[in-house]
């Protein structure tokens, strides 16, 4: 009937109006902010600057765990300071910092009065740095004492106090391809030291070939094939690369460049739920207690896989390098938490999920380290206590896990 046709037409117009309003709102929202994608696969090779509020605080970051992205969202009209120190903005001659404003088209415009700087609105990528904003240099690190080890400190230049903020240090063995330990601080002032502004430019950088060689070994299909051939199996355990200092231990999510430092990688089996839950517990304890925590993290041993007929294989990314191989897949991951006069050592075995092994490949059993005392640590969740996590007195732990620095044991009962 004509009445029903009229009703259908009205409904269609309503639906069209709702769709148009939704699209208009989405477009308006998109134009009402400038998005700086500081961590995304699409912009993997862009070195983003640090973005500061006028009060000297780093701008907050929106994290998307599912998409594995991190981005800063600036509302239209917002004025911020971009900083690449100790390096420079790529498209601005010898400029470490630049004040900019977010325009309505999602672009940034320079607020500089310098005659040599163009002030037209540009895409956010135009304001990238020439090099990463977190730099590392060869330095002195406590307990990184072997001549075979490389000690580094890493940080950035704060544009407000004009000092280098050292936010972490690490010690690694370039010949073996192993990170001995890394050290960071969880605190309201999450830096280890504040040093002169030129600290990161007057000392040498570590050898970049180390990272290149590491990444040449991260072709997992080749590793899986090597496992299948060596152990005479049809399957291999799933592996992936991970970071020692990751989002749990990075003081501000803008400092994503920490994840790209050469020593900050290891190869893990599956997702290691016990390892993730431990870091979640440590961060929750810090947020609740407001205590300053020194965190030491590293690896120990080499993963050994067994085949169905007695075959055995030590797992290295480069089995042909060195005496035994280079870049071992670690047997154990460890963290020492130092809080005032107390330290506790935690260990998680880097084992594959038995279900993924399908009974064809098995992991060698592990020698005991200590009688675990996880039940005595009140801030550990039940999930951690029941996950296979090991909790030890540091001095007892160090008898087996020699990579743990001696400084963690000083005046530090369990």
UniProtKB/TrEMBL annotation:
Top-level taxon of origin: Eukaryota
Alphabetic keyword roster: Signal
Signal sequence segment: 1-30
Protein name: Uncharacterized protein
């Amino acid at each position: 009937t004509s009445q029903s046709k009229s009703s259908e037409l009205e409904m269609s117009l309503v639906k069209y109006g709702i769709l148009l309003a939704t699209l208009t709102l989405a477009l308006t929202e998109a134009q009402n902010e400038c998005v700086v994608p500081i961590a995304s696969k699409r912009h993997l090779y862009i070195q983003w600057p640090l973005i500061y509020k006028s009060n000297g605080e780093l701008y907050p970051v929106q994290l998307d765990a599912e998409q594995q992205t991190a981005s800063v969202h600036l509302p239209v009209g917002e004025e911020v300071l971009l900083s690449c120190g100790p390096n420079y903005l790529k498209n601005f001659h010898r400029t470490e910092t630049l004040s900019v404003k977010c325009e309505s088209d999602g672009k940034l415009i320079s607020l500089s009065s310098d005659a040599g700087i163009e002030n037209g609105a540009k895409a956010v990528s135009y304001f990238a740095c020439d090099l990463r904003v977190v730099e590392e240099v060869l330095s002195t690190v406590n307990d990184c004492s072997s001549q075979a080890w490389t000690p580094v400190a890493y940080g950035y230049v704060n544009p407000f106090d004009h000092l280098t903020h050292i936010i972490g240090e690490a010690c690694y063995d370039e010949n073996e391809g192993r990170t001995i330990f890394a050290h960071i601080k969880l605190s309201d002032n999450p830096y280890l030291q504040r040093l002169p502004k030129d600290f990161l430019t007057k000392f040498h950088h570590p050898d970049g070939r180390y990272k290149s060689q590491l990444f040449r070994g991260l072709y997992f299909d080749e590793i899986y094939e090597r496992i299948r051939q060596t152990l005479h199996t049809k399957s291999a355990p799933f592996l992936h690369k991970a970071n020692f200092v990751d989002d749990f231990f990075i003081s501000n999510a803008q400092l994503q460049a920490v994840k790209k430092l050469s020593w900050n990688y290891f190869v893990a089996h599956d997702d290691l739920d016990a390892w993730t839950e431990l870091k979640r517990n440590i961060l929750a304890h810090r947020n609740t207690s407001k205590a300053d925590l020194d965190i030491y993290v590293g690896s120990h041993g080499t993963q050994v896989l067994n085949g169905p007929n007695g075959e055995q294989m030590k797992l290295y990314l480069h089995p042909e390098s060195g005496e035994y191989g280079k870049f071992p897949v670690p047997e154990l991951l460890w963290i020492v938490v130092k809080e005032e006069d107390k330290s506790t050592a935690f260990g998680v075995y880097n084992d594959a999920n038995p279900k993924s092994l399908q009974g064809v490949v098995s992991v060698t059993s592990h020698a005991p380290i200590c009688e675990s005392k996880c039940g005595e640590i009140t801030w550990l969740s039940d999930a951690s206590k029941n996950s296979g996590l090991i909790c030890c007195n540091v001095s007892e732990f160090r008898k087996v896990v020699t990579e743990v620095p001696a400084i963690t044991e000083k005046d530090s009962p369990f």
